[in-house]
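Predict the structure of 2-dehydro-3-deoxyglucarate aldolase.
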Amino acid sequence: MSKTINPFKQRLLDGQKLIGGWTLSGSPTVAEAMAFLNYDYLVVDLEHSPASVHDTTPILRAIEQTPTAAVVRMPSHDPIAIKQVLDQGGMTLYFPFVESVEEAKAIVQASMYPPLGKRGFAKMHRAARYTTREDYPAVANEQVCLIPQLETVEALALAVEIGQLDGVSAVFIGPGDLSMTMGLPGQVNHPDVRAKIVACVTACNQAGIPVGTVMPTPDDAKWALEIGFSFVSIANDLANMLGQCKAHLAQMKNS
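Done. Here is the predicted structure for 2-dehydro-3-deoxyglucarate aldolase.
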């Protein structure tokens, strides 16, 4: 692990546009294969997948041998789970369904070593390379990249306030849950959903806050980058696999 800060975080701070993948399968092999495609980053989903916090290490090991950066979507805001993922070597973390400034502050507290937070300290873990990386405690806070997910209309209204908190590096708009809470389940391209997204992204851009999301297709991802998103994932491993399988099956049945 380099002494420099998290490359994903640095690229956000440099204003770069990043294109990501997403893995829901919980498979280190699938994560490794996708990461060799040279996405800018790959999201390891622990919220909506069979993977748990305890599965994180083999998946991170698989990704870290590639040029792709690993991003972990946490299953919750639980401080113990946060500590475990950070100790396993996770550096960039998404946090689902952040609904208030207070929740975002609590996430920062659980993720940062004192004096910035209250993360529990240990020397013997993978992030510190099992004590061989003596500088880890001094650089850990700089390397951590915390990204609250805003997934309701009320949360989007707090995007700038949350994004400006010390310790928060960016915010993420969850279009699926946003559409659900607006009474338009799954309709992420509905004009009303898109209007809320555009308004939030515009406000964050004006405040200098990077914003990310996930989109179902490349065309949707291009739209997201055009309106001001800084980082966008395209679909996920299971959706891509099933989509290709369905296309193959339909082609065979119709031939």
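The radius of gyration is 18 Å.
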